[in-house]
Design a protein that fits this description.
Number of domains: 2
Largest sheet: 7 strands, mixed
CATH architecture of the largest domain: 4-Layer Sandwich
Order of helices and strands: EEEEHEHEHEHEEEEEHE
Strand order of the largest sheet: 1-2-3-4-5-6-7
Helix content: 10-25%
Shape: rod-shaped
CATH superfamily of the largest domain: Ribonuclease Z/Hydroxyacylglutathione hydrolase-like
Distance between the termini: 93 Å
Strand content: 15-25%
Radius of gyration: 38 Å
Structural class: alpha/beta
């Protein structure tokens, strides 16, 4: 009997080898973390048998890309993570789960993570067998229909500034005979002025008059 312990070689036979990559230590009260995790290599084609191990442990000990990932814990959220998928980039993923199981496995979140892989499910396809001749990997059944990646939320539209009304250059303003400014009616600076000439603000502006800084008539 070979104890399940990380870095223990199970066998080597020509191009075929298998070794334990986990557990690194035994956790007495958490059986899933004690899962025997095996990495198998056949002439460069790799298989990752994960048991029910946690995703964080699987990502940490995975050597790299895997051709076939046996998805951990029947496709539960605890067994597969973005970090694991990004590290192993599985070409194929096999999920062992019961038909209409009460746990809801595999979860939609896991299927979304595996959307770039060919996914095989025992609840849909029964027994699944993979073959390899070191040049490729093929299966006894076709993969399930791909799952579309999770829709990305539409960004909130940028708030558009509300147009501000322009100055009403048709407002009647007043100029004095010798002044250089135009004013609104009632401007305090006009209280002692006589002979005020009314005109619309646009004409006053175009005639070279400046807007009074006290009453602040319309200007461009």
């Amino acid at each position: 009997m070979i104890p399940a312990a990380a870095n223990t070689m199970l066998f080597t036979d020509g191009k075929l080898s298998a070794r334990f990559v986990s557990p690194t230590h035994i956790v007495s009260d958490k059986t899933n973390e004690n899962s025997a995790v095996v990495w198998m290599d056949y002439g460069g084609k790799t298989f990752y048998y994960t048991g029910d191990a946690d995703a964080a442990d699987l990502a940490r000990v995975a050597p790299g890309h895997v051709d076939v990932l046996k998805v951990s814990h029947h496709g539960s959220n605890t067994g597969t993570s973005a970090a694991l998928v990004n590290k192993t980039t599985p070409s194929h993923a096999v999920i062992s789960c019961g038909i209409d199981n009460s746990y809801g496995h595999p979860t939609n979140a896991v299927l979304q993570l595996l959307s770039s892989s060919n996914v095989y499910r025992t609840d849909y396809q029964g027994s699944i067998t993979a073959y390899s001749d070191t040049t490729g990997v093929w299966f006894t059944t076709a993969p399930t229909a791909p799952v579309d990646p999770a829709p990305q939320p539409k960004p909130e539209p940028e708030p558009q500034p509300q147009p501000q009304p322009g100055p009403d250059m048709n407002t009647t303003v007043y100029v004095t005979k010798t002044g250089s400014k135009y004013h609104l009616e009632g401007c305090p600076t006009l209280k002692n002025s006589k002979n005020l000439t009314p005109m619309i603000a646009s004409d006053a502006y175009n005639s070279g008059y400046g807007a009074c800084k006290v009453c602040k008539p319309p200007t461009w």
